[in-house]
Amino acid sequence: MLPSLLLGVAMVSAGKRAAAQENLVVNGSFELYDTCRQVLGFYSETDGPLGWFSASGSPDYMQGCVPNGTANGVPQSSRAFQYAQEGGSFVGVVTYQLPTGLREYIMSELLEPLTLGETYYVNFYANAAWQGSVQNPDLYAASSHIGALFTMEPGHWNIGDPYRMPGNHAQVYRPDILTDTVNWTLVSSSFVADSAYRYIMLGNHFDNATTDTVLWGHYEWLPKAYTLIDNVRVSSDPLPSGMVHYGFSGVSLYPNPSVAVLTVCCVALGTTVKVMDSTGRLVYSGVAVSASWQLDVASWARGSYVLRVVEGEDSRSFKFVLTE
Predict the structure, then answer these.
(1) Which letter, b or e, does each residue of 303-323 get, where b requires 16 or more Cβ atoms within 10 Å of its Cβ?
(2) Among the three residues 245, 278, 311, which one is the final residue of a domain in this structure?
(3) Domain containing 64: what range?
(4) Average confidence (pLDDT) over 85-97
(5) Residue 131 gets which letter from DSSP?
């Protein structure tokens, strides 16, 4: 049953390539799965998002199908408070750790090998994890060099195997520190294929000496950076306008933090807007009737909120804070 499921994923994805700008990544938004599991860590193509496996360590599969607040719940998990950039699920990996240099990687086989000499465009969204539910978290750093490495061979990792050490090379990566814990950041670049690469591996492929970090707190645990990943795309076509639109890059909330009034700017007319508190409880729902409008939040409890904008099948979340 499982092999046929995976074959079905590949066939459906291949059949939709023209409409999806020839995305060579299977299950790039991590929405397809075999089992809804309330547990951190996945290793094979079938115990996490279909088509993806661990290439080092135990990457985590945050699933919208599990109860909010569980270890791998959405939006609240033990690792972060975050909604998916697309759909309801995403993946999290360790991208920096002292003193061992631990890295976690997720890997997937492309729908077809890359063509030697052809230019490919790689895009995915990343977010610096923060506000996990565990007390005294070890995840209190942000790191640089989040990227994608393309390989000829798979690198399945099993429990007991040595961790994969970074090789200080990736075809696509973001050299600056990913510090935004609120919004998803687009990692986007292109490269010319020098081999017929068959696999994509996501994470930080650079060692501690090369990686830049910033610490957000000081706890009893060793510092570790953890990065969320969603909506992965590899194509010989440039980034489509639909993906840019999906990012809702023009939307802004201000002032943030806010006290009495929150202004929401640059939302398309007819867009559904929902606001959830830090427990995931819906506190507001409406439809944008103008490009810029205001929410009266004076009577709301002080704390963190998420404003989610939904337009058709596209959606995005924005965090804001209410203070005294």
Answers:
(1) eebbbbbebeebbbbbbbebe
(2) 245
(3) 2-245
(4) 93
(5) B
